[in-house]
Amino acid sequence: MAQISRDALETAVRQYQDPYLEKDLFALNAVKNLAANEQGEVSLDVELPYPSTGIAGALRQLVTTALENVDGVENVTVKVSQRIHAAKVDKDIGSVPGVKNIIAVASGKGGVGKSTTAVNLALALSQEGARVGILDADIYGPSVGMMLGVPEGQRPDVRENKYFVPMQAHGIQSNSMAYVTTDKTPMVWRGPMVSGAVMQLLQQTLWDELDYLILDMPPGTGDIQLTIAQKIPVTGALIVTTPQDIALLDAKKAIEMFRKVDIPVLGIIENMSVHICSNCGHEEPLFGHGGGERIAEDYQTTLLGQLPLHMTIREQTDSGNPSVAAEPDSEVARRYLDIARRVGADLSTREKNLTGSISSVSVTEH
Asked: Which of 76, 66, 64, 74 is nearest to 8 (CA)?
């Protein structure tokens, strides 16, 4: 059998362009092995730098087809894995043990679906193959536990009388002030106590080798939010808004706040973009149209996705089974999965934190 051309194999592999990083696999340094034997058998190992389980099948199929068209190739085996690194934080703050990247999910005001977005984003990153945790930093109104279906009154285990073992739900780790208090115990605290409580929850939780920790920030842009942003090594922030003008005004304040403390804004998520009638399916932009796009353009950031206002989203979240977990093939879940891949791809382009924990690898089936 004629020897297979190495150049032809590489040309075939280069036909695939990553849909999120817009480069070929060699340009991404994602090709870890490309080999052919005398029997015409070709093997390719690809390692993507972000959570990408949802696109691994399409990658495998497209690259396999391209390689099979090379002269002399009889059989192709393509393995796809991912390796997520810790991105460098532009602040002199110690890293959190067991955590590579911290993503703050924030909003300038309450009522825009920030916690719903944070929980579904965490679940989406997990479904895409990452190890994920979520910290409910909304001390005054903690809701993450209820949204994840953690039974009321269930308490986290404690180690050495000071460390919390995170709760497990839907495959992700979580901790919240709601786990150590009751619904009948309102947090009547001043700012320093709140930021201190968040720091304690963060640092005294035994996070187990997380690729991403989602930080569900308190709504607003006051002293509490500023202090938390300054004290926690946040890799990047996502701003949740609705299209209405008053929410966009507050979203701008949130962007300015993060810029003031040198935290990159990874993008905007526009929630309640359109209302979908549960009876007839009619779509109507109740809160206006195009607001997320305008603010992203004004601040040279990205509109990561637009999510509808639909009764099902609220019902699923209230019942402790959020959309991404309840209906992973639904349009809403697909939008969250797309946002998760976009965020992970963006962070993969940042300078690596070489002092952080060892990067993790996960391999998809092939």
From this structure: 66
Close Cβ partners of 310 (under 8 Å, ≥ 6 residues apart)? 275, 276, 278, 332
What pTM did the predictor assign? 0.90
Q: 30-49 pLDDT, tens per residue?
A: 999 999 998 999 999 999 99
Which parts of 205-354 fold into alpha helices (H)? Answer: 223-231, 245-260, 291-298, 311-318, 323-326, 331-348
Count other Cβ atoms within 10 Å, centred on residue 171: 12
Nearest to 247 by CA among 138, 110, 117, 118: 110
Q: Nearest-CA neighbor of 320 among 146, 136, 114?
A: 146
Which domains does the chain possess? 6-84 (3.30.300.130), 99-361 (3.40.50.300)
